Amino acid sequence: MLRYGFPVLFSLIVLAGCGNVTGARTVVQGTGPEEYLKLRAGPGLGFSVILGLPEGTALIRHDCVTELGQLWCKVSLADAPQLSGYVSADYLSEP
Q1: What is the pTM of this model?
Q2: Which of 13, 15, 55, 77 has the fewest Cβ atoms nearer than 10 Å?
Q3: What does DSSP assign to residue 23?
Q4: What domains are there in the chain, each with its CATH number?
Q5: What is the CA radius of gyration of the chain?
Q6: Which residues, other chains included, contact 42 with Cβ-Cβ below 8 Å and sequence gap of 6+?
């Protein structure tokens, strides 16, 4: 029945879960005290870095996309919403 198997099904579930988080507040987590999460111009490691975000930075999460197996979310800074870019979803948490 399932022609494409578990990886495709899992990807669809992840994308469906991200589809309704537009405007959700989130916080940078897991980077450590001396590390920064890179806010990038696009969804992937090949895009330029706009800014480094320290742990605890409040963000507004918009749409999420999967690029080469990695989930990336478009975010804007809660205190400066005009500043936006993409971050790895691995480092986002609900506040």
Answers
A1: 0.74
A2: 13
A3: T
A4: 6-93 (2.30.30.40)
A5: 14
A6: 85, 86
Token pair for 48: 């330029």
**Mean per-residue pLDDT, 14-41:** 74
Residue 81 has pLDDT above 50, yes or no: yes
Q: Which residues of 60-93 are buried (b: 16+ CB within 10 A; e: fewer)?
A: bbbebbeeeeebbbbbbbeeeeeebbbbbbebbe
Burial class, 3, CB count within 10 angstroms (exposed 0-12 / middle 13-18 / buried 19+): exposed
Q: DSSP letter string over 37-81? A: EEEESSSSTTSPEEEEEETT-EEEEEEEEEETTEEEEEEEESS-T
Average pLDDT, the chain: 81
Distance CA 21, CA 31 (A): 22
